[in-house]
Every structure is written in C-alpha cells, then in structure tokens.
Design a protein that fits this description.
The chain is of the alpha+beta class and about 160 residues long. About 55% of the residues lie in helices and about 15% in strands.
C-alpha cells in the first residue's frame, strides 16, 4: 500500500488506500476515490439502519425522509427537486415508504395533478434515529480532518459539482 498526498496551498492530506487495480491512488483518480467513499458511507448507513431494525429502508429513502423532516409536507415535485432525482424515481421511493407506513400521499383538492407527501407518526419517529446515525457517521467521516481541510474539501467539491 502506498501513500498519496493531495496538496492545496499549505494543507496536505495523506490518503492511503488499497486498490485491486493500483497500488497508488493518484490525484487524477479522485473520482474513483469519491465513489469509494460514497460506497463505504452508504454501507455504513445501511448497516446502522439495520441495527435499528430498518432493513427495508435504503439510503435513497433516507433522502426523502430527511427532506420531510425539514418540511413535513411537500409535493412530489418539491421532493424531486430537493433530492435531485427524477419524478418517476421519487414516485417509486415514496410509494414504498407509503406501503411501509412512514408516509402518506394526498392529492391537492384544487389541482388533482399535485400530490402532497407527508410523514406519518411512524415516519416522524425515525427523525431522532436518523439524526443519531448521521451524527455518528459525520464524526467518523471527519475524524482526523481539520476545520481548514473541511473548508478546502467543501470548496473544491462544490466547484467540481458546479462544473456539471
């Protein structure tokens, strides 16, 4: 296993990874690294949710629930925009959460094309569990990362995101 150093101004971040393809992770392989981090974070979240008895909920469902924790009643279009997924994907995810008893769907009385989604009491009970899992995951995610490094990382990733 080799060391790779990513350097920006005076901040240097050492990243050590084992890869089936390369012994050394190079700066140009940052997309691969981001993908691997995402996979590990998702596995960790799913594992923690399973420990809480929520095996049937995936990370994409969590995005919807988080949006509704912030705003308890949203249209399907609002959810789609907030979580950056197309409407058909959101519909399938919401429908599963409705079947599981976490959400309700209701048509607007004045415009039947508009569907509102809201948390049920069972869905609302998930908020403290999600917050706990999120706090623990973020603590782990940012372990050994300084505030300055966080700011640099956020700034760089935001610029990259905005390139698309």
């Amino acid at each position: 296993m080799g060391d790779c150093c990513l350097s920006h101004n005076t901040v240097t971040v050492d990243i050590c990874l084992t890869s089936n393809y390369n012994e050394h992770m190079e700066t140009r392989d940052i997309v691969s690294l981001i993908s691997k981090i995402r996979e590990k974070v998702n596995r960790h979240i799913v594992s923690e949710m399973a420990k809480q008895g929520m095996e049937e909920i995936g990370t994409s469902h969590g995005d919807i629930l988080y949006a509704l924790f912030k705003t308890p009643r949203l249209t399907m279009a609002d959810i789609s925009r907030r979580i950056n997924k197309d409407k058909s994907t959101v519909t399938a995810l919401v429908d599963k959460l409705v079947r599981l008893g976490y959400l309700t769907k209701e048509r607007d009385q004045e415009d039947a094309r508009v569907v509102y989604v809201a948390l049920t009491p069972k869905g609302s009970e998930l908020e403290p569990i999600f917050e706990s899992i999120s706090r623990e995951m973020l603590d782990r995610f940012y372990a050994n990362v300084t505030d300055e490094e966080r700011e640099l990382l956020f700034g760089a990733l935001t610029k990259i995101y905005n390139n698309f």
